[in-house]
Amino acid sequence: MASVQNKILIIVFTLLLFASIASAQTFESEELKQLWDVPTSEVKSVTLKTYSREGIKVEELYYYSRSYKRAPSRIFGYYCYPVKHSGKLPAILLSHGGGGSASLPRAISWAKRGYAVLTIDLPGKGENRACSRSTGPDMIVANLLRTQPDLSYNYLVHAVAAARNGITFLSNRKEVDPQRIGMIGLSWGGVLTILTNGMDDRLKAAVNVFGAGYIPEGCTWEEIFTAMPANDKDLWNNFLDPKNFLATQHAPILFITGTNDHCYYLTTFQKSYEDVTAPKKFLLIPNLRHKFTPLVQAPALVWLDQKLKNGGTFPVINELPVFTKGSDKILLSCRVEVHSTVKSAKLYYTLGGPQGWTGKKWKELPSYQENGTYFFPIPTTLLKPEIMYYLTVKDNHGGGTSTLVRSLFAVKLKDGRKTYAYTAPIKRIYRHQTPITLIGTTESKNIGYVYSKPDLAYLPYELPN
Known about the structure:
Layout lengths: L1 H35 L8 E9 L2 E13 L2 E12 L6 E7 L8 H8 L4 E5 L20 H4 L10 H17 L4 E11 L1 H12 L3 E7 L12 H6 L2 H11 L12 E6 L7 H10 L4 E6 L8 H17 L5 E4 L3 E3 L3 E9 L4 E10 L11 E3 L2 E3 L2 E7 L6 E10 L4 E3 L3 E7 L5 E5 L14 E2 L8 E6 L4 E6 L3
Parallel strand pairs: 4-5, 4-6, 6-7, 7-8, 8-9
Antiparallel strand pairs: 1-2, 2-3, 3-5, 10-12, 11-12, 12-16, 13-14, 13-17, 15-16, 17-18, 17-19, 19-20, 20-21, 22-23
């Protein structure tokens, strides 16, 4: 009898345990929803003044956003659109990065392309943001990484609310087609774009410049993350990091960065891009650090034009198997799909492996084309012992696509023969990414490689099962 009672108690305890877990999951989901969610039907705004400049109507305005210290934040913005236009316009929400503010010249320039443009001062002031006209928490690193006393104090929560209320403002304007709204963000604004596009299905196009997920794994604030208490780091990773919204991106998104960006390392940028399941493209600018140059702006606008106005696609690069050509060259090749014509197809490389990202010098290698296939010969003399490389194809409409960066290195086999191997796209600092493919040799998943200085090559070794 006691045995039966014990079994009953175990069953009851198990059911209660599962019920508590289900309840916790439901609460956590509701907690997450409450953390980020904002009303999207309407937003209150106040127009400060209106004027025309260069054929563009300009409105300086405030709209109200998430409360901070018991008062709604006021978000300042320039709203610009062509004075002369027919029908409803596509619209762009522009978000600056840390230290930035709303740019009227940029908004006017983009409005001349046939857009309604809203560029805003993100909430508060902060480092180099004395000119910000918005209220709310200050845009400082301490607030961007903050998790205490609870997550609602984190700056990104308020910035996402400002962006989503900006989308609502655009949706309700009579000049705007609410089915053609896009967003572009730079740096922390790129992070904001990933977060917003991961939550808000009203966006129909997105451009992330420099921003990434997995931020604690490789960024300029690495020391701050390292010093965080474990609980705070877990809260950041599980609730605030953009990685949590990569699989829920709604609009097609273009990722653009520079090879030498010092804020969000290329490794985490590539890792984030691979996690996106929505339609996407990747464009890498050689030797670019953290600056929004014309080389970045031009393809970003082409992407928005294609998704919101004109149609069309960016180039598609189909990489072909790598092989050796004689004893002195490795030959990479690809075929390209474009909706127009190919303007250029280039291979960029840098000496060394996956470390020292911000100080690398990227160079171009000559290429040639035969019967629609592009060939990129790499002299084996460069591999002492390795390089990293990627391809970029641009079309005559201003679109551009890059492959992800991989490592290519020399290998000395156990029988003394020399060959070469290339990795999967690099997603971690100091680490070759598996699977690693030997050129001209059967690939083995149980083989690792360690560098031998005397051999100027990597030696294979058996990995534990």
